[in-house]
Design brief:
By secondary structure, this protein is α/β, with parallel strands linked by helices. Helices cover 47% and strands 14% of the residues. The protein has two domains: 2-56 and 75-137, Rossmann fold (3-Layer(aba) Sandwich), CATH 3.40.50; 144-340, Rossmann fold (3-Layer(aba) Sandwich), CATH 3.40.50. It has helices spanning 2-7, 48-69, 90-101, 119-123, 144-163, 180-191, 203-213, 247-252, 269-277, 285-288, 291-297, 305-312, 314-329, 333-366, and strands at residues 11-17, 22-30, 36-37, 40-43, 74-81, 107-108, 172-176, 195-199, 220-222, 235-238, 257-258, 281-282. Strands 1, 2, 3, 4, 5 and 6 form a six-stranded mixed sheet that branches. Helix 9 (269-277) links the parallel strand 11 (257-258) and strand 12 (281-282). Helix 2 packs across helix 14, helix 5 (144-163) crosses helix 6 (180-191) and helix 5 (144-163) packs across helix 11 (291-297). The N and C termini lie far apart (43 Å). The chain binds nicotinamide-adenine-dinucleotide (NAD). Nicotinamide-adenine-dinucleotide (NAD) binds at residues 143-144, 147, 176-182, 199-202, 205, 225, 239-241, 261-263, 289, 292.
Length: 367
């Protein structure tokens, strides 16, 4: 099974650097659109196989995410095997930088779960193919700002598709996770006059958010982690962990749509079909949460916050178009999104091979 997954990828690189203790894997899935781009995740994986599985799955996801966001990058991902609380050493990230450098520009990377932008200051001493560095080091900084803005556009697009209006005043949202993205999404929604049900495993975040909410007119109520799925809301906004749309939660949801930032919200692709059958509209995660990707991809042109936010607005149009295609074909929005990305990849492949064809006569002359 794992060998079949590897063969779907263009390149997989394993690295073991004993002096720093680095054990890492870089997976490059597809470079049709450009060099691979994907964050570097650090986790104490229980085995090398588990790390490889994760790298392969995430790299493939990046191919689709880049295609949907229409950036000139392909799909890749890196994983470092280790405990992010104790093993994020400068030496490891320098060794990781050398590993990235060895790919000669086929792979760009930066922060992801378990790593921080500051870690990549060390990696950037070894390679220039690092994105998302802190602003003081020439990078674009906090990606949760465009990600949250993109989620707001996705919510507005969904509201427009469902109710013919982008006005969110008086609507009710069930917001799961009040971290970097969820907090900002919550603030956007409050500013738009919405009411919220909120939950977070960190009670401190909940208390602080309830305090912030006193400055707004909308009503905000805190509920437990289990209750959030069944509240009487218009939209469910998952901004915490993956696989929250599963066999059990699909049946509990009373909302009209699911739009959030969490990666891999669907536990399985069947859960996307289940949502569709229950008449719940789903904003494919890799489209709704692509604001951060748009920001790091934009670093090629030098960083500019306003330009990034302008580009992030494309999420609105892309999503409406996916909803329309899914409706016209009677398929789930996830399937429509995958088809949309595969078509974009195919069109680029055709164009790439056209340019190759143009060069062929010269080779034949040489022969
Ligand atoms: P974060 O770690 O800052 O916030 C996550 C929040 O969720 C935390 O407050 C945590 O306490 C809470 N949480 C964890 N498990 C929970 C649970 N079971 N129920 C309720 N709350 C729970 O992360 P973030 O950067 O805000 O990212 C949120 C999600 O969006 C993640 O899935 C991430 O992969 C995804 N995402 C983030 C970005 C970005 O730019 N930061 C971009 C794309 C996707």
């Amino acid at each position: 099974m794992i060998f079949q997954k590897i063969s779907e990828h263009e390149q997989v690189l394993f690295c073991h650097e004993p002096r720093s203790g680095l054990r890492a894997i870089i997976a490059i899935h597809n470079t049709t659109l450009g060099p691979a781009l994907g964050g570097c995740r650090m986790q104490p994986y229980e085995s090398e196989e588990a790390a490889l599985e994760d790298a392969l799955r995430l790299a493939k996801g990046m191919t689709y995410k880049c295609a949907a966001a229409d950036v000139d990058f392909g799909g890749g991902k890196a994983v470092i095997i280790g405990d992010p609380r104790t093993e994020r050493t400068a030496e490891r990230f320098r060794a990781f930088g050398q590993m990235v450098a060895s790919l000669g520009g086929r792979f760009y990377t930066g922060t992801d779960m378990g790593t921080m932008p500051e870690d990549f200051i060390h990696a950037a001493k070894e390679t220039s193919y690092i994105v998302g560095l802190p602003e003081a080091y020439g990078g674009s900084g906090d990606s949760s700002i465009p990600t949250a803005q993109g989620i707001l556009y996705a919510i507005q697009a969904t509201s427009y598709f469902l109710w013919g209006t982008e006005v969110l005043k008086g609507k009710h949202f069930a917001l799961q996770g009040l971290g970097k993205v969820g907090w900002k999404v919550g603030e956007h929604l409050l500013a738009a006059g919405a009411n919220l049900w909120v939950t977070d495993v960190d009670q401190g975040r909940v208390d602080a958010f309830l305090q912030l909410a006193t400055a707004y007119a909308g009503e905000v109520k805190a509920v437990s982690g289990a209750e959030i799925y069944g509240v009487d809301a218009d939209l469910f906004v998952p901004c915490a962990i993956g696989a929250v749309i599963n066999h059990t939660s699909v049946e509990q949801l009373k909302v009209k749509a699911v739009v959030g930032s969490a990666n891999n919200q669907l536990a399985t692709s069947e859960d996307g079909v289940r949502l569709h059958e229950r008449g719940i509209l789903y904003a494919p995660d890799y489209i709704a949460n692509s604001g951060g990707l748009i920001q790091v991809a934009d670093e090629l042109y030098g960083h500019n916050h306003e330009r990034v936010l302008r580009k992030t607005k494309a999420i609105y149009e892309t999503l409406v178009s996916i909803y329309q295609q899914a409706e016209a074909q009677g398929i789930s929005t996830m399937k429509a999104a995958d088809q949309f990305c595969e078509e974009r990849l195919y069109q680029r492949q055709v164009r790439n091979s056209f340019y190759l064809e143009q060069r062929r006569p010269q080779w034949e002359l040489v022969k």
